[in-house]
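job 3f2a | input accepted
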Amino acid sequence: MPRLEEYISIVGLSIIDDLKLLSEKLKGKVIQNINSTSVGGGVAEILNRMVPLLRELNIDAKWEVIKGGEDFFEVTKRFHNALHGREEEITPKDFDIFMEVSQRNIEDMKLYGDIIFVHDPQPIALVKNKSRIPDSKWIWRCHIDVSNPNMRVWNFLKEFIVQYEASVFSSPSFAQRLPIRQFLISPSIDPLSDKNKELPDNIIHSVLKKYGITKDKPIITQVSRFDYLKDPLGVIEAYRRVKKYIDCQLVLAGGTATDDPQSEEVLNKVKEKAGKDKDIHILLIPPKSDMDINALQRAATVIVQKSIKEGFGLTVTEALWKAKPVVASAVGGIPLQIKHKYSGLLCHSIDGAAFAIKQLLNSPSYAKKLGENGREHIRQNFLLTRHIRDYMLLFLSMYHNEDIVYL
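job 3f2a | predicted structure (407 res):
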């Protein structure tokens, strides 16, 4: 892990000094983070980078993961889709499974933090243990877009949410009317992680060779989990519409997560739709292959994120940080990152995505300018140091009585 001082050349000395001053006020507090997986997905990635830096700031940050079997994660995946507004059949048995596994975690997990920071719906019911540690402050962090949720699922979860002292959402449009304090904090990327740091050309070339990709024609790339909400099937369709006019190739690179049992089904449908097109590269990237993802993004001519629903879209953040021209759906937290025609191009359909990709492939100078603007926008707003500052302010605010705080 990089040391805090290594970020000075990117964000400036004053930002690091501010973090050190804030951390002094949290000395002696234990921050216990809890989520559903240690591998795969943006939440695990953020915690993996953030917890060590908080410890370097002398904040006693911990990270625990709940236990859950295949049935539980199939249920929480349906909850996840339903909270994004997708049609899902949710049965009484699903709620029973959720509560049975939650009860086992309530009984088994040791809770000890001064601040217990629970991430997303999977571990949400742990708050039933709140009375056992009366001096602890409980915060629920929602990383997904719940602007138009399935109300049956939302109302079920809300019974737990209202027991927390505060909730955190990534975007103003995600927030729901709640009787507890709400904070708005955007996620971030670590510019010095293997996934985002600068790479020499020889490493990029070696990764392309490893996956059988050449640079003899433009590369359109989407990096994301194989998930229906990321619309990889729609990306293939957009690529085919571009291919009629410009000879290009498509890279769909992604992985799986232990709390997402649906990803294998999606991957198989993607392979079926790609057929025998040799210019479509479907890459199942194993865990801890961040350097490969970095190289694939840096080798891309255009990066796409055609999500149907999106929490925030850290793959967009990563692409913009690499000064790449990006075409992305105007959903979730993506419009916070892409200002249309300034730091990227937003789209609303397969046709719109295809049109924007063609525009960028036909106008390299315009594409380059969008990429440069995007990188600066990320530097100012969506790097890990800003995220750590916001979380420390959040933790401190738990000891002050104010209704709503915007960070």
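job 3f2a | The first strand starts at residue 30 and ends at 35.
job 3f2a | closed
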